[in-house]
Specification:
Blueprint: H1 5-37, E1 57-59, E2 75-77, H2 78-94, H3 113-119, E3 133-134, H4 145-157, H5 162-173, H6 179-189, H7 191-198, E4 205-209, E5 217-221, H8 229-255, H9 261-292, H10 303-309
Parallel strand pairs: 1-2
Antiparallel strand pairs: 3-5, 4-5
Helix pairs in contact: 2-4, 5-6, 8-9
């Protein structure tokens, strides 16, 4: 049955906020009881300030958060909840989580889809086969992260409400353009930063990043890392992306000969971007090639910081 994310959000907000109100009331009742026991009624405060209640309170927007909640690290907004939903979806894409079973699914070193199917034999949503989800500024690959996310929303909430749910997600994230473009912009520009914040600068989803021109980016799940990951990243993704850039550049260069002045200006702008992305991706490919030849092993017991540093030349900086 199709489900609206908006309805799920409202139900969760009501539950969380009722829990907040109940906890605050309980703490104030305890204060009153102890004040009476120790004969200090009127001398000690009974009311508990909102900022000191240590459980989530959800507001639709940051502008709605009252001054009384300032300093409460448990305050959340609708955007925060949607960002958490996206993070969970990415976990499902990698097989860390499943729509069909609670708890962690793939969390052992070197886990593959084979282990996933052993634990979830008939999945509602199938995780990515090769542990590489490309994040580019257009849908170039079959397993493009935005396309995969759309399929996850379809599997989780149904076909009937798909477009409404994507629009709701996009509206919560903010930005302009179609729902899919807003979601793509989020993955390109903000997802990894939010992930690092959630995981206290110890990301388990690693972002391979060519640089500021967004020539090439892709996520991989640390727990599913295999020594041949970078070789596959290079041959199956980076090389393909380079060839696409070359094809697009050649097409635009040819088309510009018959274009009018306005079209030429637009095309030159596109060409400049594509040439910069190709140059950036070419330099990135050389770095990946160097590391791929080493077939680097990792040990999960060493922790994220140690393992991440082994690939720091080709991974996004953790901030």
């Amino acid at each position: 049955m199709a489900t609206k994310i908006s309805d799920k959000y409202e139900a969760w907000k009501a539950e969380a906020n009722a829990r907040f109100d109940q906890l605050k009331a309980n703490e104030e009742e305890l204060n009153r009881i102890f004040a009476e026991i120790y004969g200090m009624v009127g001398e000690v405060p009974i009311e508990v300030e909102d900022r000191y209640v240590s459980v989530a309170r959800i507001f639709d927007t940051a502008e709605e958060i009252p001054e009384s909640f300032k300093g409460n690290k448990y305050v959340r907004t609708r955007r925060d909840e949607i960002v958490s939903l996206i993070s969970y979806a990415v976990g499902c894409m990698f097989g860390r989580y499943s729509l069909d079973k609670d708890g962690l699914i793939l969390a052992d070193q070197g886990d593959t889809v084979t282990e996933y199917l052993a634990r979830v034999p008939v999945p509602t949503f199938m995780p990515d086969e090769d542990n590489i989800l490309p994040i580019t500024d257009d849908e170039y690959f079959d397993d493009d992260i935005v396309g995969t996310f759309v399929e996850w929303v379809r599997a989780a909430y149904g076909e009937e409400t798909l477009e409404e749910n994507l629009r709701y997600i996009a509206d919560a994230l903010g930005g302009s353009g179609s729902a899919r473009q807003v979601i793509r912009d989020y993955f390109v520009k903000e997802f990894f930063g939010d992930h690092c914040q959630t995981y206290k600068k110890r990301p388990i989803y690693w972002l391979f990043d060519s640089g500021k021109k967004n020539g090439f980016r892709a996520l991989a799940y640390m727990h599913r890392y295999q020594p041949d990951l970078l070789a596959r990243l290079r041959t199956d993704y980076i090389h393909e992306q380079q060839e696409r850039y070359r094809t697009q550049i050649a097409h635009l260069e040819e088309a510009s000969f018959d274009a009018d002045r306005t079209q030429k200006v637009r095309m030159e702008k596109q060409l400049k971007k594509l040439r910069e992305q190709l140059a950036e991706t070419t330099a990135f490919e050389e770095k990946v090639h160097h590391l791929a030849d080493q077939m680097i092993e990792i040990d999960l017991d060493d922790g994220v910081k140690v393992n991440y540093a082994k690939f720091q030349d080709v991974l996004a900086k953790v901030k």
